Amino acid sequence: MDEFKRKNNEEMEKDVLFSHAVKAGKRIYYMDVRKTRKEELYLSITESKKITTGDGESAQVSFEKHKIFLYREDFSNFIDGLTKTIKYIHEAENSNAPATETQDPASDSEKVPDLPKPDDFKIEF
Predict the structure, then answer these.
(1) What is the tens place of the pLDDT at every residue in 41-69?
(2) Is 116 helix (H, G, I), strand (E, B) or coil?
(3) Could you tell me the pLDDT band of residue 96, with boundaries at 50, 70 and 90?
(4) At CA 23, angle to CA 50 and CA 121, rounded to 5?
(5) Is 32 exposed, middle or buried (0-12, 13-18, 19+ CB in 10 A)?
(6) Which architecture, in CATH terms, is 2-120?
(7) What is the largest CA-CA distance in the chain?
(8) Which of 32, 37, 57, 110 makes a 20 to 30 Å CA pair with 86?
(9) Are the C-beta atoms of residues 115 and 81 closer than 8 Å to each other?
(10) DSSP secondary structure code for residue 17 in this structure
(11) Closest CA to 73 of 21, 9, 125
């Protein structure tokens, strides 16, 4: 069974045409471009989180993984939803921030970055 899993993982890794990893604390996000059987490209996003159980010499390390498969026809909608969600988070955090003496109210608008619009991404294959 383990040998089958290992061979299957090795075959999956061969299908990766491009890969980019983003490290974020105990998590790593892998963005892999893969090809379907019909030769169509798609994005595979994997979140890998390091889990440590136990202490000292008996500590065991494992990785919890979650995957999202994003196909070309969904790129624009995904980018639009992600952009709106990130913008909401930035605005909500700025509106909930307590006023302090060192905080310049004029700089609030500078804290929310201009996020790209889905039309700004020119994705061609």
Answers:
(1) 999 999 999 988 888 888 898 999 999 99
(2) coil
(3) confident
(4) 130
(5) buried
(6) Roll (3.10)
(7) 63
(8) 32
(9) no
(10) S
(11) 125
What distance in Å separates the CA atoms of residue 5 and residue 12, rounded to the nearest whole number?
10
Q: In the sheet where 60-71 sits, what is the strand order?
A: 18-24, 27-35, 41-53, 60-71
Q: Express as a percent the part of the chain with pLDDT over 90.
A: 50
Task: Scan for tokens 């040998």, then name that residue.
Answer: 3
pLDDT per position as a tens digit, 25-36: 889 999 999 999
Domain residue limits, the chain: 2-120
Closest to 79 measured CA to CA, from 35, 43, 112 = 43
CA torsion through residues 89, 95, 97, 103, sign: positive
* Separation between Cα atoms, residue 18 and residue 74, nearest integer Å: 19
Residue 5 phi/psi, 5-degree rounding, is: -60, -45
The helix or strand, by DSSP H or E, that contains position 12, with its residue range, turns out to be: helix 2-14
Tokens representing 113?
A: 């970055």
| 4-21 pLDDT tens trace | 555 555 555 668 999 999
